[in-house]
Write a structure and sequence with these properties.
mainly alpha, two-stranded antiparallel ribbon, about 80% helix, disordered N terminus
């Protein structure tokens, strides 16, 4: 089929490449989830108080808040593969340093590079969106979330056995470090020529050579020299490339700040904060309300994770039922999430809690997939890393606020966090209805003009 055909052009080896990226996502969260649950215990064994533990956790969140958008934008400028390698290697080194931490100072020192460079998931999402056409993106993002969730479920199970051994925490950290280096090796061997999907409509019946000639012509017209790295992002070459990269990153961030994406970022923030409030005291609330053993609570949390992972595998099929109208699917999944929080907060039996956990795992997974797809649909392919980083920064703000708000409302009621979460979800729903109404009016106006 020629370049001008009605169906999108497929990159050879497209599916196998996606599978490799799913593997990277799985190993990434598998390694992290082995260490993070044990970190608080390790800090206390080193003599740290609960306050110190909280401050170290906040330090990581603050570093993620400011570094997410910068690393994402840097991947737009330099190329996804290069930045992914850098983040994996430096994150692996930081976990290796954590594996020899015998003091609070070393723990803090080890968490700093992790907070700055641990953005594997962000870059992988941007890369996957580069690889596939828009109509396949919900399916691919759903599978990506599923692979990541499986890693997050299995990690604590393995580390729970390792920590019982002599020096178990240190062994776990070194295994995590090794996993990151293996991941870097996987990324290194991926075929660079297949790192970008180019939609048919942008090729204008041209071959790859014609595309290169077009770039060359544009470069000559602007009297600048460009380079196209492995992920298809154009890069300016000057006598000071590092300075040029910094300027390009700043320009992309400035463009995002001045964009029309803040309405979607508000939806992301409200729903992320609502979800975090729901989970903030889940175990404590279940124990106090129903007097169940911790083991059952652990099973319930794992069950929710399994439901979320399975939901990721069917997310693409659900999106197809909506004809890939992901904004409408986002609205409906948010309504389902809000209703589930209300039912959970007033539940009188553990059976209802199990039902709520099932529905919540499904609705939040679909919601995360949808919000990512809606955001990506509003930007060009050369700003996707910046966008994904900004989204992570917005979520980081919610992670910082959630523990504070949860503690305050728990002073009133143990069911306060999910009820506040339901209220925030309702605000997000009303905001989405307003956005949808404006979009419908704009579409009708355009139709009348035609």
């Amino acid at each position: 089929m020629g370049w001008g055909g009605g169906r999108p052009v497929r990159v050879p080896g497209h599916q196998p490449l996606q599978q490799w990226l799913y593997l990277v996502a799985f190993l990434d969260l598998f390694g992290v989830s082995m260490v993070v649950p044990l970190l608080s215990r390790h800090i206390k064994l080193l003599g740290g108080s609960s306050t110190v533990t909280g401050l170290i956790g906040s330090l990581y969140g603050l570093l993620q808040l400011f570094s997410s958008i910068v690393i994402g934008s840097w991947s737009d400028v330099v190329g996804r593969q290069s930045i992914l390698l850098v983040t994996l290697i430096l994150s692996g080194c930081s976990y290796g340093l954590l594996g020899i931490s015998t003091s609070i100072f070393l723990v803090i020192l080890a968490r700093i590079p992790t907070g700055i460079f641990k953005h594997t998931q962000t870059i992988l999402k941007a890369l996957l969106s580069d690889l596939v056409p828009d109509h396949e993106r919900p399916h691919v993002m759903g599978r990506f979330c599923a692979a990541s969730s499986v890693g997050f479920i299995l990690g604590p199970v393995i580390s729970g056995y390792l920590v019982e051994l002599d020096g178990g925490f240190y062994s776990t950290c070194f295994i995590c470090c090794l996993i990151f280096f293996v991941n870097a090796g996987v990324v290194w061997q991926l075929p660079c020529k297949e790192w970008l999907y180019i939609p048919t409509k942008e090729l204008h019946s041209m071959t790859e050579n014609n595309c290169e000639n077009m770039y060359t012509t544009l470069c000559k017209e602007n009297r600048k020299s460009f380079d196209t790295p492995s992920n298809g992002v154009m890069r300016l070459q000057t006598s000071d490339p590092l300075w040029n990269q910094c300027m390009s990153v700043c320009q992309k961030i400035k463009g995002l700040v001045c964009s029309n994406l803040w309405d979607i970022f508000l939806v992301r923030f409200l729903m992320a904060l609502a979800n975090l409030l729901y989970f903030s005291n889940f175990g404590l609330a279940i124990e106090e309300r129903f007097n169940v053993p911790p083991r059952l609570i652990g099973y319930l949390i794992s069950y929710g994770g399994i439901i979320g992972s399975l939901s990721g595998y069917i997310a693409g099929s659900v999106a197809r039922l909506y004809n890939n109208k992901t904004f409408l699917l986002l609205l409906h999944s948010s309504i389902l999430t809000c209703c589930t929080m209300v039912v959970y907060s007033f539940a009188t039996s553990i059976t209802v809690i199990v039902l709520c956990t099932t529905v919540f795992g499904f609705s939040t997974t679909i919601g995360r997939m949808c919000i990512t797809d809606v955001e990506l649909g509003r930007v060009g392919k050369q700003a996707r890393g910046t966008l994904m980083g900004a989204g992570q920064s917005v979520t980081a703000v919610a992670r910082i606020l959630a523990p504070v708000l949860s503690g305050l409302v728990q002073e009133v009621s143990v069911c306060g966090p999910p009820r506040l979460g339901a209220g925030l979800a309702l605000l997000a729903i009303l905001h989405m209805i307003s956005i949808h109404s404006k979009q419908c009016k704009t579409t009708e106006a355009k139709a009348k003009l035609q």
